[in-house]
Amino acid sequence: MKLITRDSDYAIRALCFIAKSKNRIVNVSELTAQLKIPRPFLRKILQTLNKNGLLYSYKGKAGGFELAMRPNKIFVLKIMQIFQGELKLNECFLKKAPCPNVKRCKLKKKVDKIQEYVFRELKVVSLSYLMKKRA
Amino acid sequence: MKLITRDSDYAIRALCFIAKSKNRIVNVSELTAQLKIPRPFLRKILQTLNKNGLLYSYKGKAGGFELAMRPNKIFVLKIMQIFQGELKLNECFLKKAPCPNVKRCKLKKKVDKIQEYVFRELKVVSLSYLMKKRA
DNA sequence: AGATAATGATACCATATTAGTATCATTTGT
DNA sequence: ACAAATGATACTAATATGGTATCATTATCT
Protein backbone atom coordinates (compact mmCIF):
# COMPACT_ATOMS: atom_id res chain seq x y z
CA MET A 1 0.00 0.00 0.00
CA LYS A 2 1.34 3.35 -0.97
CA LEU A 3 0.73 6.45 1.07
CA ILE A 4 2.09 8.59 -1.75
CA THR A 5 1.33 7.57 -5.32
CA ARG A 6 3.60 7.91 -8.29
CA ASP A 7 2.03 11.04 -9.71
CA SER A 8 2.19 12.83 -6.35
CA ASP A 9 5.80 11.75 -6.03
CA TYR A 10 6.67 13.04 -9.51
CA ALA A 11 4.83 16.27 -8.79
CA ILE A 12 6.83 16.79 -5.61
CA ARG A 13 10.10 16.20 -7.41
CA ALA A 14 9.17 18.49 -10.28
CA LEU A 15 8.05 21.25 -7.93
CA CYS A 16 11.29 20.99 -5.96
CA PHE A 17 13.31 21.31 -9.13
CA ILE A 18 11.30 24.31 -10.24
CA ALA A 19 11.67 25.81 -6.78
CA LYS A 20 15.43 25.52 -7.00
CA SER A 21 15.36 27.31 -10.37
CA LYS A 22 14.39 30.63 -8.86
CA ASN A 23 13.13 33.43 -11.10
CA ARG A 24 13.47 31.25 -14.18
CA ILE A 25 10.94 29.59 -16.35
CA VAL A 26 11.51 25.86 -16.57
CA ASN A 27 10.17 23.80 -19.44
CA VAL A 28 9.26 20.14 -19.70
CA SER A 29 12.37 19.18 -21.65
CA GLU A 30 14.59 20.38 -18.86
CA LEU A 31 12.50 18.60 -16.25
CA THR A 32 12.40 15.27 -18.04
CA ALA A 33 16.14 15.43 -18.64
CA GLN A 34 16.82 16.04 -14.95
CA LEU A 35 14.17 13.88 -13.32
CA LYS A 36 13.83 10.92 -15.71
CA ILE A 37 10.06 11.10 -15.63
CA PRO A 38 8.17 9.99 -18.79
CA ARG A 39 7.53 13.17 -20.73
CA PRO A 40 3.79 12.90 -21.53
CA PHE A 41 3.00 11.83 -17.98
CA LEU A 42 4.97 14.72 -16.58
CA ARG A 43 3.19 17.12 -18.92
CA LYS A 44 -0.14 15.94 -17.60
CA ILE A 45 1.04 16.34 -14.04
CA LEU A 46 2.28 19.88 -14.63
CA GLN A 47 -0.99 20.84 -16.27
CA THR A 48 -2.82 19.56 -13.24
CA LEU A 49 -0.58 21.57 -10.94
CA ASN A 50 -1.27 24.62 -13.06
CA LYS A 51 -5.04 24.11 -12.91
CA ASN A 52 -4.78 23.80 -9.16
CA GLY A 53 -2.90 27.05 -8.79
CA LEU A 54 0.50 25.72 -7.73
CA LEU A 55 2.21 26.68 -10.99
CA TYR A 56 2.02 29.52 -13.46
CA SER A 57 2.43 28.43 -17.05
CA TYR A 58 3.60 30.28 -20.12
CA LYS A 59 2.72 29.07 -23.59
CA GLY A 60 4.64 29.59 -26.77
CA LYS A 61 8.31 29.51 -27.57
CA ALA A 62 10.45 30.01 -24.46
CA GLY A 63 7.43 29.06 -22.41
CA GLY A 64 7.35 26.81 -19.37
CA PHE A 65 6.44 26.84 -15.69
CA GLU A 66 7.24 28.65 -12.49
CA LEU A 67 5.94 28.38 -8.94
CA ALA A 68 2.77 30.30 -8.24
CA MET A 69 3.65 30.70 -4.56
CA ARG A 70 6.66 30.56 -2.31
CA PRO A 71 8.07 27.09 -1.53
CA ASN A 72 7.24 27.43 2.15
CA LYS A 73 3.57 27.78 1.18
CA ILE A 74 3.42 24.61 -0.90
CA PHE A 75 2.69 21.51 1.16
CA VAL A 76 3.00 17.83 0.35
CA LEU A 77 -0.46 17.21 1.76
CA LYS A 78 -1.94 19.65 -0.74
CA ILE A 79 -0.16 17.89 -3.60
CA MET A 80 -1.44 14.53 -2.40
CA GLN A 81 -4.97 15.91 -2.21
CA ILE A 82 -4.72 17.09 -5.80
CA PHE A 83 -3.60 13.74 -7.18
CA GLN A 84 -5.06 11.29 -4.69
CA GLY A 85 -8.11 13.09 -3.39
CA GLU A 86 -8.83 13.90 0.22
CA LEU A 87 -6.92 11.70 2.67
CA LYS A 88 -9.38 9.12 3.98
CA LEU A 89 -7.81 6.01 5.40
CA ASN A 90 -11.15 4.67 6.58
CA GLU A 91 -12.83 4.50 3.17
CA CYS A 92 -14.01 0.94 3.40
CA PHE A 93 -15.86 1.68 6.63
CA LEU A 94 -17.61 4.78 5.42
CA LYS A 95 -19.00 3.13 2.32
CA LYS A 96 -20.95 0.79 4.51
CA ALA A 97 -24.10 1.51 6.42
CA PRO A 98 -23.53 2.93 9.92
CA CYS A 99 -21.47 0.61 12.09
CA PRO A 100 -23.54 -2.51 12.69
CA ASN A 101 -21.96 -3.09 16.08
CA VAL A 102 -19.52 -2.03 18.70
CA LYS A 103 -16.40 -3.66 17.40
CA ARG A 104 -16.57 -1.85 14.09
CA CYS A 105 -16.91 1.46 15.84
CA LYS A 106 -13.82 0.78 17.89
CA LEU A 107 -11.84 -0.14 14.81
CA LYS A 108 -13.09 2.91 13.00
CA LYS A 109 -12.02 5.08 15.92
CA LYS A 110 -8.53 3.66 15.74
CA VAL A 111 -8.31 4.32 12.04
CA ASP A 112 -9.66 7.82 12.52
CA LYS A 113 -6.97 8.46 15.10
CA ILE A 114 -4.30 7.19 12.73
CA GLN A 115 -5.66 9.35 9.97
CA GLU A 116 -5.48 12.43 12.13
CA TYR A 117 -1.89 11.65 12.95
CA VAL A 118 -0.95 11.24 9.30
CA PHE A 119 -2.71 14.49 8.52
CA ARG A 120 -0.84 16.38 11.25
CA GLU A 121 2.50 14.98 10.16
CA LEU A 122 2.10 15.71 6.47
CA LYS A 123 0.40 19.07 6.85
CA VAL A 124 3.63 20.76 7.84
CA VAL A 125 5.88 19.30 5.15
CA SER A 126 6.55 22.08 2.65
CA LEU A 127 8.85 22.20 -0.36
CA SER A 128 11.20 24.36 1.69
CA TYR A 129 11.36 21.70 4.36
CA LEU A 130 12.15 19.02 1.79
CA MET A 131 14.89 21.12 0.23
CA LYS A 132 16.69 22.05 3.43
CA LYS A 133 20.16 20.55 3.54
CA ARG A 134 20.19 19.63 7.23
CA ALA A 135 17.39 18.53 9.49
CA MET B 1 -6.95 5.15 0.03
CA LYS B 2 -7.95 2.33 2.29
CA LEU B 3 -5.81 1.33 5.22
CA ILE B 4 -7.90 -1.79 5.68
CA THR B 5 -9.20 -3.60 2.60
CA ARG B 6 -12.51 -5.32 2.22
CA ASP B 7 -11.24 -8.85 2.76
CA SER B 8 -9.41 -7.86 5.95
CA ASP B 9 -12.54 -6.10 7.14
CA TYR B 10 -14.71 -9.14 6.42
CA ALA B 11 -12.16 -11.39 8.11
CA ILE B 12 -12.23 -9.24 11.24
CA ARG B 13 -16.01 -9.30 11.39
CA ALA B 14 -16.17 -13.05 10.82
CA LEU B 15 -13.54 -13.72 13.48
CA CYS B 16 -15.38 -11.53 15.97
CA PHE B 17 -18.57 -13.41 15.35
CA ILE B 18 -16.84 -16.75 15.75
CA ALA B 19 -15.17 -15.47 18.91
CA LYS B 20 -18.54 -14.59 20.38
CA SER B 21 -19.79 -18.11 19.61
CA LYS B 22 -17.60 -19.72 22.23
CA ASN B 23 -17.06 -23.48 22.22
CA ARG B 24 -19.29 -23.86 19.20
CA ILE B 25 -18.51 -24.65 15.60
CA VAL B 26 -19.83 -21.98 13.27
CA ASN B 27 -20.48 -22.66 9.61
CA VAL B 28 -20.54 -20.42 6.57
CA SER B 29 -24.31 -20.34 6.29
CA GLU B 30 -24.61 -18.90 9.76
CA LEU B 31 -21.89 -16.33 9.08
CA THR B 32 -23.33 -15.11 5.78
CA ALA B 33 -26.76 -14.83 7.34
CA GLN B 34 -25.44 -12.70 10.17
CA LEU B 35 -22.80 -10.64 8.41
CA LYS B 36 -24.22 -10.14 4.92
CA ILE B 37 -20.96 -11.05 3.27
CA PRO B 38 -21.11 -12.75 -0.17
CA ARG B 39 -20.90 -16.43 0.53
CA PRO B 40 -18.17 -17.59 -1.90
CA PHE B 41 -15.98 -14.64 -0.96
CA LEU B 42 -16.40 -15.38 2.71
CA ARG B 43 -15.56 -19.01 2.11
CA LYS B 44 -12.31 -18.03 0.48
CA ILE B 45 -11.49 -15.72 3.35
CA LEU B 46 -12.16 -18.39 5.97
CA GLN B 47 -10.00 -20.87 4.11
CA THR B 48 -7.19 -18.34 4.11
CA LEU B 49 -7.60 -17.78 7.84
CA ASN B 50 -7.45 -21.53 8.32
CA LYS B 51 -4.26 -21.87 6.27
CA ASN B 52 -2.71 -19.11 8.32
CA GLY B 53 -3.51 -20.80 11.58
CA LEU B 54 -6.14 -18.42 12.95
CA LEU B 55 -8.99 -20.89 12.55
CA TYR B 56 -9.49 -24.60 12.93
CA SER B 57 -11.82 -26.11 10.36
CA TYR B 58 -13.96 -29.23 10.41
CA LYS B 59 -15.16 -30.84 7.21
CA GLY B 60 -18.24 -32.90 6.64
CA LYS B 61 -21.75 -32.59 7.95
CA ALA B 62 -21.96 -30.46 11.08
CA GLY B 63 -18.56 -29.03 10.13
CA GLY B 64 -17.45 -25.41 10.32
CA PHE B 65 -14.89 -23.22 12.00
CA GLU B 66 -13.66 -22.22 15.42
CA LEU B 67 -10.86 -19.96 16.65
CA ALA B 68 -7.44 -21.56 16.79
CA MET B 69 -6.32 -19.23 19.59
CA ARG B 70 -7.79 -16.99 22.21
CA PRO B 71 -9.31 -13.68 21.03
CA ASN B 72 -6.74 -11.66 22.96
CA LYS B 73 -4.02 -13.32 20.88
CA ILE B 74 -5.52 -12.46 17.50
CA PHE B 75 -4.49 -9.03 16.26
CA VAL B 76 -5.87 -6.86 13.51
CA LEU B 77 -2.35 -6.21 12.23
CA LYS B 78 -1.83 -9.93 11.72
CA ILE B 79 -5.09 -10.18 9.78
CA MET B 80 -4.06 -7.25 7.61
CA GLN B 81 -0.71 -8.86 6.95
CA ILE B 82 -2.43 -12.04 5.80
CA PHE B 83 -4.68 -10.30 3.30
CA GLN B 84 -2.71 -7.20 2.39
CA GLY B 85 0.86 -8.26 2.90
CA GLU B 86 3.40 -6.57 5.13
CA LEU B 87 2.48 -2.98 5.99
CA LYS B 88 4.70 -0.75 3.85
CA LEU B 89 3.43 2.76 3.34
CA ASN B 90 6.56 3.85 1.51
CA GLU B 91 6.36 1.38 -1.36
CA CYS B 92 6.73 3.87 -4.18
CA PHE B 93 10.00 5.09 -2.75
CA LEU B 94 11.53 1.70 -2.25
CA LYS B 95 10.87 0.58 -5.80
CA LYS B 96 13.12 3.33 -7.07
CA ALA B 97 16.88 3.42 -7.01
CA PRO B 98 18.33 4.86 -3.79
CA CYS B 99 17.12 8.38 -3.11
CA PRO B 100 18.57 10.62 -5.79
CA ASN B 101 18.76 13.59 -3.47
CA VAL B 102 18.17 15.07 -0.08
CA LYS B 103 14.54 16.03 -0.41
CA ARG B 104 13.43 12.49 -1.17
CA CYS B 105 15.24 11.21 1.86
CA LYS B 106 13.45 13.67 4.07
CA LEU B 107 10.11 12.67 2.67
CA LYS B 108 10.94 9.02 3.08
CA LYS B 109 11.90 9.64 6.68
CA LYS B 110 8.52 11.23 7.31
CA VAL B 111 6.70 8.33 5.75
CA ASP B 112 8.80 5.86 7.71
CA LYS B 113 7.89 7.66 10.90
CA ILE B 114 4.20 7.53 9.99
CA GLN B 115 4.47 3.86 9.19
CA GLU B 116 6.00 3.10 12.57
CA TYR B 117 3.16 4.95 14.24
CA VAL B 118 0.52 3.01 12.32
CA PHE B 119 2.28 -0.20 13.20
CA ARG B 120 2.40 0.63 16.90
CA GLU B 121 -1.26 1.59 16.95
CA LEU B 122 -2.55 -1.46 15.15
CA LYS B 123 -0.25 -3.97 16.78
CA VAL B 124 -2.20 -3.85 20.02
CA VAL B 125 -5.71 -4.13 18.59
CA SER B 126 -6.95 -7.62 19.33
CA LEU B 127 -10.32 -9.21 18.81
CA SER B 128 -10.92 -8.92 22.56
CA TYR B 129 -10.27 -5.21 22.37
CA LEU B 130 -12.73 -4.83 19.52
CA MET B 131 -15.39 -6.78 21.33
CA LYS B 132 -15.23 -4.96 24.64
CA LYS B 133 -18.40 -3.07 25.33
CA ARG B 134 -16.83 0.02 26.89
CA ALA B 135 -13.54 1.75 26.19
C1' DA C 1 3.48 36.20 -42.23
C1' DG C 2 5.17 31.82 -41.24
C1' DA C 3 7.94 28.33 -38.94
C1' DT C 4 8.91 26.63 -34.58
C1' DA C 5 8.61 25.51 -29.89
C1' DA C 6 6.28 25.65 -26.05
C1' DT C 7 1.70 24.40 -23.15
C1' DG C 8 -3.76 23.07 -23.04
C1' DA C 9 -7.24 19.76 -23.58
C1' DT C 10 -8.77 15.38 -24.12
C1' DA C 11 -9.22 10.68 -25.31
C1' DC C 12 -7.24 6.51 -25.16
C1' DC C 13 -4.52 2.32 -23.45
C1' DA C 14 -1.89 -1.12 -20.28
C1' DT C 15 -1.21 -3.12 -16.02
C1' DA C 16 -2.10 -4.23 -11.28
C1' DT C 17 -5.08 -4.61 -7.52
C1' DT C 18 -9.35 -5.49 -5.47
C1' DA C 19 -13.44 -7.89 -5.05
C1' DG C 20 -15.53 -11.16 -6.12
C1' DT C 21 -17.74 -16.20 -8.80
C1' DA C 22 -17.86 -20.87 -10.18
C1' DT C 23 -16.75 -25.59 -10.04
C1' DC C 24 -15.28 -29.80 -8.61
C1' DA C 25 -12.96 -32.68 -5.05
C1' DT C 26 -12.85 -34.35 -0.39
C1' DT C 27 -14.52 -35.38 4.13
C1' DT C 28 -17.91 -36.73 7.64
C1' DG C 29 -22.37 -37.65 10.13
C1' DT C 30 -26.64 -40.06 9.61
C1' DA D 1 -25.52 -44.06 -0.02
C1' DC D 2 -26.60 -39.40 0.62
C1' DA D 3 -26.43 -34.86 2.26
C1' DA D 4 -23.94 -31.17 4.10
C1' DA D 5 -20.03 -29.24 5.22
C1' DT D 6 -14.99 -27.40 3.83
C1' DG D 7 -10.56 -27.63 0.39
C1' DA D 8 -8.53 -26.36 -3.78
C1' DT D 9 -8.30 -23.86 -7.73
C1' DA D 10 -9.37 -21.34 -11.76
C1' DC D 11 -11.86 -17.81 -13.63
C1' DT D 12 -14.12 -13.02 -14.02
C1' DA D 13 -15.54 -8.09 -13.16
C1' DA D 14 -14.65 -3.61 -11.56
C1' DT D 15 -11.60 -0.07 -10.21
C1' DA D 16 -7.29 2.36 -9.65
C1' DT D 17 -2.83 3.36 -11.29
C1' DG D 18 0.44 4.66 -14.54
C1' DG D 19 0.94 5.93 -18.39
C1' DT D 20 0.45 7.36 -24.39
C1' DA D 21 -1.13 9.81 -28.29
C1' DT D 22 -3.06 13.51 -30.74
C1' DC D 23 -4.58 17.77 -31.96
C1' DA D 24 -5.47 22.69 -30.63
C1' DT D 25 -3.69 27.00 -29.02
C1' DT D 26 -0.32 30.47 -28.02
C1' DA D 27 3.96 33.07 -28.22
C1' DT D 28 8.52 34.08 -30.08
C1' DC D 29 11.85 34.67 -33.65
C1' DT D 30 13.20 35.50 -38.16
In short:
The structure is a homodimer of 135-residue chains. The first copy, chain A, is mainly alpha-helical. In chain A, 56% of the residues lie in helices and 6% in strands.
Largest sheet of chain A: 2 strands, antiparallel
CATH class of the domain at 6-86 and 126-131 in chain A: Mainly Alpha
Q: Give the quaternary arrangement of the chains.
A: homodimer
- Strand tally of chain A is 2
The ordered string of helix (H) and strand (E) elements of chain A is HHHEEHHHH
Radius of gyration of chain A: 18 Å
**Annotation field: number of helices of chain A:** 7
Q: Give the overall silhouette of chain A.
A: elongated
Largest interface between protein chains, with number of residues from each side: A-B, 40 and 40 residues
Task: Find the structural class of chain A using helix and strand composition.
Answer: mainly alpha
Share of helical residues of chain A: 55-70%
| Termini gap of chain A | 27 Å
Q: Which residue ranges of chain A are poorly predicted, with pLDDT under 50 across at least 5 consecutive positions?
A: none
CATH topology of the domain at 6-86 and 126-131 in chain A: Arc Repressor Mutant, subunit A
Strand content of chain A: 5-15%
Overall mean pLDDT of chain A stands at: 91
Biggest sheet of chain A: strands side by side, in what order?
1-2
Q: Supply the CATH superfamily name of the domain at 6-86 and 126-131 in chain A.
A: Winged helix-like DNA-binding domain superfamily/Winged helix DNA-binding domain
Architecture per CATH nomenclature, i.e. the level-2 architecture of the domain at 6-86 and 126-131 in chain A = Orthogonal Bundle
